[in-house]
Amino acid sequence: MSDQPAPSSPIPPMGPNGQPAPPLQLNVQYTRDLSFEVPGAPEIFISMREQPRVDLALDVQARPVQGQAPNIYEVSLQIRADAKIGETSCFIAELAYCGVFTLNVPQEHLEPVLLVECPRLLFPFARNILADVTRDGGFPPVLLAPIDFVALWQSRRAQAGQPPAGTA
């Protein structure tokens, strides 16, 4: 028998400087795809008398980065803004904004970190890009309200028929 007590939890991964590795590290963030279309230009600018109605769609995708360590993931925020006045399309903006993350978390925490915490870090940058591209395209900037990524993740789990997080 040993005089030392058994560790109560696994030893955390160590970083290059001998310190424990952070649970979440954002390595790089980037715009993978950005599209802005004004199908009715230039007539839409001449005939537009009111603010367009903007329909928004947001999705979060996560995948392991192939050929890398098993704890490196790409997380992608995909945003589509479709603006119309009546049935007339004013603009369509599509953005895929991504980050590459190194995660050192237990397996049971992987999904919420990938689909809640990672997109939360990316969101302010994606929000700025969407606002800038719509303003630079000749329209009022689309300012996304803060997103509740926890609710989005829980909704996705419910649609997939998975139990709520924290239940067995």
SSE inventory with pairings:
Layout: E1 24-37, H1 43-47, E2 53-64, E3 72-85, E4 88-103, H2 107-136, H3 149-159
Antiparallel strand pairs: 1-4, 2-3, 3-4
Give the structure's gist in a few sentences.
The chain is α+β, with helices and mostly antiparallel strands and 168 residues long. It has a four-stranded antiparallel beta sheet.
Report on the architecture of this protein.
This protein is an alpha+beta fold. Helix content is 27%, strand content 33%. It contains 3 helices and 4 strands.
Radius of gyration: 21 Å
- As residue ranges, the low-confidence spans are 5-11
Order of helices and strands: EHEEEHH
Number of helical elements = 3
Structural class: alpha+beta
Characterize the main sheet.
4 strands, antiparallel
Could you give the order of strands across the largest sheet? 1-4-3-2
Percentage of residues in strands = 25-35%
Distance between the termini: 35 Å
**Helix coverage percent of residues?**
25-40%
Mean pLDDT: 87
State the shape.
Answer: elongated
